[in-house]
Design a protein that fits this description.
Helices cover 74% and strands 3% of the residues. It is mainly alpha-helical and 425 residues long. The protein has one domain: MFS general substrate transporter like domains (Growth Hormone, Chain: A, Up-down Bundle). It starts with a strand and ends in a 16-residue tail after the last helix.
């Protein structure tokens, strides 16, 4: 723990974790902005296979944290796991610059991510006492870091890759990962002191998981798995539509297709402060159930954003749609995302028992794994549907997730009602 505060009244360690995460996300989203275009345009892989590879890769990148979280909690510790994971990911990003190493590079990034991803956010909670009201709010601050990196990545990596050569874009992603690693190494003294790893007997006695909590986590996980099948299309089939179905002309200039992927994180940064201010005013009303209802609202809003795209396609007919419609889609889409994803991560981190922080956060990434895999399968349908019907399908998937989450909210409370800070999202 530390009482030093430098940013929004938060410990200095949060700044270190924020910046480390920002640059890691820059590298991830920089590579992701290029991936499906690189496969279809440079490697000449068919659309259906490219979408499936994209989905499989993102799924694997979120499956390895399940194993990595256990390794971090039981053997390496969180700091060593972050350092090793970041190093392996940086290597993988640089390998992407060489076509023969394509699959090996994807594997390296996924493996490194397995150690890095659960170990970094679980340190956010370790900066605070468990009853510190700032603890939950810190995850929204942390989520902004994700989106600053995600905003810069398509503008820098995407522009380099699209205009000057794919390998320059992948190389820039590698540089971002190295920057994150150096920040983390230089800020070690501000990070929380790691607790001694318990032996097997202590671990079994101190898990703190009760049956109801496990069922709540599993239920939320199932709902978010369904949601992410639609959500993850922004880097997959929606990116393909931005290339083929959108008039990207802005006067005499044509907007690079990768730039649209910066709109989502840009809107996250703009919308997060007012949403946080609103939720903080209602802190006394928040419970597990109300937070899950908030997630259901988010899924419904995301479904509405896909309904918008379906309507635009129907109205446009054979003509290309104006790029402003895609910008409006991202505005609505992002508003819904802020209701569901940071809220879910905050709930998983809050319900984590002592000594199992990385493991519990890793279970959230298991949800992203299953959701990404299902998104890859849904993405293979892009060439089999007309765009309007496909976007209607995505709206239906997001709507189903909303219905499931509303159902979950009715059984989410423990036998003794427990208040949950609005900042726990």
């Amino acid at each position: 723990m530390t009482d030093e505060r430098t940013w929004f009244g938060q410990p200095r360690g949060l700044t270190v974790l924020f910046l480390t995460n920002m640059w890691e996300q820059f590298s991830y989203y920089g590579m992701r902005a290029l991936l499906v275009y690189y496969m279809t345009k440079q490697l000449l892989i068919g659309q259906a296979q490219s979408s499936f590879i994209y989905g499989t890769y993102t799924a694997c990148a979120y499956f390895t944290p399940i194993i990595g979280g256990v390794i971090a909690d039981r053997y390496l510790g969180k700091r060593k796991a972050v350092i090793i994971g970041a190093s392996v990911m940086a290597l993988g990003h640089f390998m992407m610059a060489f076509e023969p190493l394509f699959y090996a590079a994807l594997a390296a990034i996924a493996i490194g991510n397995g150690l890095f991803l659960p170990s970094l956010p679980s340190q956010v909670g370790d900066l605070y006492r468990r009853d510190d009201p700032r603890r939950g709010w810190a995850f929204n601050v942390y989520y902004v870091g994700i989106n600053i990196g995600g905003f810069l990545a398509p503008l820098i990596c995407g522009t380099l890759g699209e205009l000057y050569g794919w390998h320059y874009g992948f190389g820039a992603a590698g540089v971002g990962m190295v920057a994150g690693l150096l920040i983390y190494l230089s800020g070690q003294k501000y990070l929380p002191v790691e607790q001694p790893k318990p032996n097997a007997a202590e671990a079994g006695a101190r898990t703190g998981f009760d049956r109801h909590t496990i069922l709540v986590l599993l239920g939320i996980g199932l709902c978010v798995t369904v949601f992410r099948a639609a959500y993850e299309q922004v880097g997959n089939t929606v990116a393909l539509w931005a290339d083929s179905g959108i008039d990207r002309a802005a006067g005499a200039y044509e907007i690079p297709m990768t730039w649209f992927q910066s709109l989502n994180p840009l809107f996250v940064m703009i919308m997060t402060p007012p949403l946080l201010a609103y939720w903080r005013r209602h802190i006394h009303l928040e419970t597990r159930a109300s937070l899950i209802r908030r997630m259901a609202t988010g899924a419904l809003i995301v479904g509405a954003s896909y309904l918008l795209l379906a309507g635009v396609e129907l109205l446009s007919g054979a003509a290309l749609a104006g790029w402003a419609w895609l910008a409006l889609f991202f505005l609505i889409f992002t508003f819904g995302e802020l209701f569901i994803l940071p809220t879910g991560l905050g709930l998983f981190a809050r319900l984590a028992p002592p000594h199992l922080g990385a493991t519990t956060v890793a279970s959230w990434f298991l949800v992203i794994f299953s959701g990404s895999l299902s998104a890859g399968l849904i993405g293979t349908l892009w060439s089999k549907f007309d765009p309007a019907a496909y976007f209607l399908l995505l709206a239906g998937i997001a709507g189903l997730a909303a219905i499931l989450l509303r159902g979950m909210s009715t059984v989410a409370e423990p036998s003794r009602p427990e208040k949950v800070s609005a900042e726990a999202d």
